[in-house]
């Protein structure tokens, strides 16, 4: 295993551990000594090679698929995150009600839940887009194109949807 790959793998291991709110000693305690803090730390720093078997066991311990621990295949090891889906609420207000009514109500509900009333833009999640696609009886990619044509979504949203459909 190359040194760079080991470091990338270690970064993924560290990210999963910290997402779960565990310190290295927390891993040792939670695993009842099965995973020693010093060993997991050396995996995370890329100082120590981890076997496929041990990686599979560690993935099982963290409750994640093994592929979540493997570095990406893109240069630099980390894929560029997909762009955020940001609705332009000012432009949405100018789309005819018969077209944008469901989207306007959905956006208003999200704003209410978040207490976010800036009125200019609203970030939505991929799940929100999928829900809206069901409401509009379209695929997420077709709905994305429609929202781009209305000027409500930036053209970069295509990349976010394409990333999701891979």
TrEMBL record:
Q: Which CDD domains match?
A: BldD_C_like (cd16837), HTH_XRE (cd00093)
Q: Name one Pfam family in it.
A: HTH_31
Residue ranges constituting the HTH cro/C1-type domain according to the UniProt record: 13-69
Protein's name according to its UniProt entry: XRE family transcriptional regulator
Q: Which GO terms describe its biological process?
A: negative regulation of DNA-templated transcription
Instruction: Drop me one GO molecular function for this one.
Output: DNA binding
Question: This protein's superkingdom?
Answer: Bacteria
């Amino acid at each position: 295993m190359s040194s760079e790959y080991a470091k990338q793998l270690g970064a993924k291991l560290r990210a999963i551990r910290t997402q779960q709110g565990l310190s290295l000693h927390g891993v040792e305690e939670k695993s009842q000594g099965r995973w020693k803090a010093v060993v997991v730390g050396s995996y995370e720093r890329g100082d120590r090679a981890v076997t496929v078997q041990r990686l599979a066991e560690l993935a099982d311990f963290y409750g994640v698929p093994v592929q979540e621990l493997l570095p990406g295949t893109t240069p630099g090891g980390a894929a560029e995150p997909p762009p955020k889906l940001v609705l332009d609420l000012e432009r949405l207000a100018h789309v005819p009600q018969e077209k944008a009514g469901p989207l306007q109500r959905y956006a208003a509900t999200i704003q209410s839940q978040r207490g976010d009333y800036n009125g200019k833009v609203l970030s939505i999640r991929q799940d929100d887009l999928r829900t809206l696609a069901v409401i509009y009886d379209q695929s997420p990619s077709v709905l994305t194109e429609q929202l781009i044509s209305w000027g409500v979504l930036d053209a970069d949203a295509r990349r976010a949807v394409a990333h999701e459909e891979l």
